[in-house]
Every structure is written in C-alpha cells, then in structure tokens.
Design a protein that fits this description.
122 residues, mainly alpha, three-stranded antiparallel β-sheet, 5 helices, 3 strands
C-alpha cells in the first residue's frame, strides 16, 4: 500500500513561511522563471529573504504538487515559467488578510506609535 504524502498547503488558513510567502508574492503580479523569482524575492523582502537554488526549487516542487502554482507552457522557452493557480491566489490572499488584520490590531493598540512602518521593520 502506497501512502501519499500530505499536502503542505492543504489548509488554506495555515500561515505561510517567509520564503513561500515571497514566492507567491513574486508570482501574484505575473508569471516568472526561477531566477526572476529569486531576484524578486530578494527585492521584495529588502534582502531579508534570500533563496538559494535548492530552497527555491524545493519550494517550487511543493507548490506544484499542492497546485498553488503551475508551469506555464511557452513555445520554445529555454526556462520554466510559473504562475499562481486560483488556489494559490486564494491562499496568498488569506495570508495578506492575516497580515492586514495583525497590522490593524497593532494600530488599535497603539503599538506602532509614530514610527513609519518601513523603519519599524528594521
């Protein structure tokens, strides 16, 4: 009897790890190939998340298996391109809502003070 591995993202309400969040963020606006995703993740995270090839392609493999992304069929493309699926968009939107709720809660508790968000992250 072959046991199937549970899907890592089967619960659309579970928090995402920073690398997965930033990969989905990179793909939310358009399809990209692996190296483009790596550069976009570094840019979007202000350098706090840097993906090596092994980490990136391991994550891509899991995201493909869990149907959060798909490989885009491009004629004569030398590189593999990926895009979010509807499920991927939903899970990403849930994560953005979770972050938004946390920021709103921090605001209502006056935890942010007069510090601009960009400086508070440092």
């Amino acid at each position: 009897m072959v046991m199937s591995k549970p899907k890592a993202f089967s619960n659309s309400n579970a928090p995402l790890t920073p690398p997965i969040f930033y990969i989905l963020l990179a793909l939310a606006s358009r399809e990209r190939h692996g190296y483009e995703i790596m550069k976009q993740v570094t840019h979007d995270s202000n350098g706090t998340v840097r993906l090596g090839a092994g980490t990136l392609y391991g994550a891509i493999k899991r995201l493909l298996e869990d149907e959060l992304i798909v490989e885009v069929d491009r004629d004569h493309a030398r590189r593999k391109y990926y895009q979010l699926t509807d499920k991927g968009h939903t899970i990403f939107a849930n994560e953005l809502q979770r972050y938004s709720n946390a920021v709103e809660l921090a605001k209502t508790r006056s935890l942010l003070g007069d510090i601009p968000l960009a400086e508070a992250a440092l």
